[in-house]
Specification:
The chain is of the alpha/beta class. Helix content is 24%, strand content 33%. It has five helices and eleven strands, in the order E-E-H-E-H-E-E-E-H-E-H-E-E-H-E-E. The strands form two sheets. The chain has a nine-stranded mixed beta sheet with strand order 5-6-4-3-7-1-8-11-10, sandwiched between helices. The chain has a two-stranded antiparallel ribbon with strand order 2-9. Strand 5 and strand 6 form a beta hairpin. It binds NADP nicotinamide-adenine-dinucleotide phosphate. The site of NADP nicotinamide-adenine-dinucleotide phosphate has 27 residues, from strand 1, strand 2, helix 2 and helix 4. NADP nicotinamide-adenine-dinucleotide phosphate binds next to strand 1, strand 2, helix 2 and helix 4.
């Protein structure tokens, strides 16, 4: 029987469900100290932290956490100095977990869009979606590709088996709220 995994996504979005601006970068308006602390804590506790290549470059693995970088450049699953690199077209998720997570445990999925989309199909057990109210990022990068077709992120999560379980007023002074989504049992 495969080991138990707890796969959770972490993102902070604008009112229009964007994780980055039109320049491909996360603007200061999406940076929040309290959200950052929880995000870092989740990575500390995870047995594997997953980033797509551009997000990996934007947040280098300075703390030496067990990181998996999703890229078409990887041969399959290969170890590099900055973490494990994975091409899902050439090695399956069960291949990855069999090798890197034999005992299971928490997996933190930190984006960007490529990785969030990928894990919608693999299956999230939970998603921590923070929102900076009052921020819009026209032409920016959406958290899920479906949002580019006008589907709200909340609808995407609901359609993928998750239900809203908690609203946390993370930083009311700065208009930041976290919604916690969990898999419907
Ligand atoms: N606000 C937030 O919560 C949040 C969260 C995450 C990221 N971000 C920000 O969002 C920006 C980047 O996000 P992004 O969505 O543009 O890029 P991304 O998803 O992080 O990375 C894109 C990369 O994924 C790889 N990729 C694409 N298709 C693939 C496939 N079929 N198989 C394997 N790998 C594939 C490609 O790398 P190769 O070219 O190597 O194949 C591509 O360059 C950064 O500024 C980051 O800081 C913000």
């Amino acid at each position: 029987m495969p080991a138990h995994l707890d796969i959770r996504g972490y993102a902070i979005v604008s009112d229009d469900d964007k994780i980055a601006g039109a320049d491909g970068l996360t603007p200061v308006s999406l940076r929040n100290e309290k959200d950052w602390e929880l995000y870092q804590r989740a990575q500390d506790l995870a047995n594997l932290v997953v980033f797509a290549r551009r997000s990996h470059e934007a947040e280098p693995n300075v703390r030496g956490r067990p990181r998996l970088v999703v890229s078409r450049e990887a041969v399959g699953l290969e170890q590099r100095p900055d973490g494990w690199w994975w091409n899902p077209g050439r090695a399956s998720w069960p291949d990855v977990t069999g090798r890197l997570l034999p005992g299971g445990g928490p997996v933190a999925v930190c984006g960007g869009q490529v990785v969030f989309d990928l894990f919608l199909s693999i299956g999230f057990d939970g998603f921590h979606l923070s929102r900076a109210y009052g921020v819009t990022l026209p032409g920016g990068r959406s958290v899920f590709s479906a949002c580019d077709a006008g589907v709200p992120a909340a609808t995407v999560l609901g359609e993928n088996g998750l239900t809203l379980s908690e609203r946390i007023p993370l930083d009311p002074a700065h208009g930041v709220e976290m919604t916690v989504w969990r898999r419907v049992p």
